[in-house]
Design goal:
mainly alpha, 3-stranded antiparallel sheet, 13 helices
Length: 369
């Protein structure tokens, strides 16, 4: 469980970057809505302690329980559909909004990274065979369908990208990738036709409106597009150095309540408005360096399991950062996905800190040269 580690091998660079990102995030949450500050601080302390403990537990020991983790994941996702808490038309949480809630789809990211890494490491020699690929699809499809049923399309896509990146690194044939890309062309065309149908099945009303608002923004400026337009206005108003942290002397988008729940999915608009272009770039650089550390850890991992874990975590942080900032700047359709370490949400924070703990453990057991 606890290997013979050496302090000199501990990834302090990654630890420091995570601490900076978490502190940055806590300050921005306090600025967006101070009522969440105390809860976020308590959660942050617990998560950081858990991250350090997890970084010392060998991932080779954790892999022995991959089927238990997979089972727990499925049970939690089923529980959401049966007794979950509904908010804004989606059932994604367990618990009471007045006390504490957890979002099992966030935990799914870690559980599936571990399970997928174990599966791929055991089938490296047959990665491009029909049997192995079918097994990988079956491993992923059950939790992905359960998450999509909540509905939570953004998290479903997020996990799909994570699992695909791990499969790609495992050596997925370029011929298979090419065939997949060719199949995407008619699928995209069919999808664009499909969303124009009156009340298309399998899509919630708000999901359809968000897609249409992205394709035809001028038709949705006062409705679905409202949040993103105000987010862009807030980021642009910050100019180079911003209006100042916790600014209350100038008229701001935050103080005017032009963006609802700004402490979560649109936290980047707070960064842009109060810290300006410089602060926004700083956030991107910090999260980018965390991704780089994960990739370096993957390259130096002592075995395939460690490489796949670090790859999955790098994709998790990188893709979520890209999507969140893309939504806040209106470059992508509006979808609810948190900015790692920065957005409010204890389930997301637990997921990210657990992911970092796993990567730091992989780094502790890197190859000796």
């Amino acid at each position: 469980m606890f290997d013979d580690y050496h302090l000199r091998n501990y990834n302090f660079k990654l630890l420091i970057l995570v601490l900076i990102a978490c502190i940055f995030g806590t300050l921005m949450i306090n600025s967006a809505d101070s009522s969440y500050f105390k809860k976020q601080c308590i959660g942050l302390v617990i998560c950081l302690m858990g991250m350090i403990v997890l970084s010392l537990i060998s991932y080779k020991f954790i892999r022995k329980f991959h089927w238990i983790l997979y089972g727990v994941n499925i049970v939690l996702l089923l529980a959401v559909l049966i007794v979950g808490t509904n908010a804004n038309g989606a059932t994604r949480w367990l618990g009471s909004q007045d006390v504490i809630t957890i979002q099992p789809s966030e935990f799914s990211k870690i559980f599936l990274i571990i399970c997928a890494a174990n599966y791929l490491s055991e089938h490296m020699d047959s990665i491009n065979t029909f049997k192995t690929l079918t097994g990988y699809v079956l491993l992923a499809v059950i939790p992905l369908v359960l998450i999509a049923m909540q509905p939570d399309l953004s998290t479903t896509i997020d996990i799909f990208i994570i699992l695909f990146s791990m499969l790609f690194v495992a050596g997925l044939s370029y011929k298979i990738i090419g065939v997949g890309l060719l199949c995407m062309i008619p699928l995209i065309g069919s999808f664009l036709w499909y969303i124009k149908l009156p009340d298309p099945p399998f899509l919630q009303g708000y999901q359809l409106n968000r897609i249409l608002a992205y394709l035809y923004p001028e038709d949705y400026t006062s409705t679905t597009r409202y949040q993103q337009d105000n987010s862009v206005m807030a980021i642009g108003s910050g100019q180079l150095f911003g209006k100042g942290l916790n600014n209350s002397t100038l008229a701001t988008v935050k103080d005017a309540n032009l963006i609802s729940e700004q402490q979560t999915d649109f936290i980047f608009s707070v960064v842009g408005e109060e810290l300006g272009f410089v602060g926004s770039i700083l956030i991107i650089v910090i999260l980018g360096l965390i991704v780089v550390q994960c990739i370096r850890t993957a390259r130096k991992a002592s075995d395939h399991m460690g490489m796949f874990i670090a790859t999955g975590v790098a994709t998790l942080i990188g893709f979520q950062t890209f999507i969140n900032i893309g939504v806040a700047t209106a470059l992508l359709p509006n979808t609810g996905i948190p900015l790692p370490f920065i957005s409010y949400g204890l389930s997301s924070l637990v997921c990210c800190c657990a992911a970092m703990g796993l990567v730091m453990n992989v780094s502790l057991q890197r190859r000796k040269y």
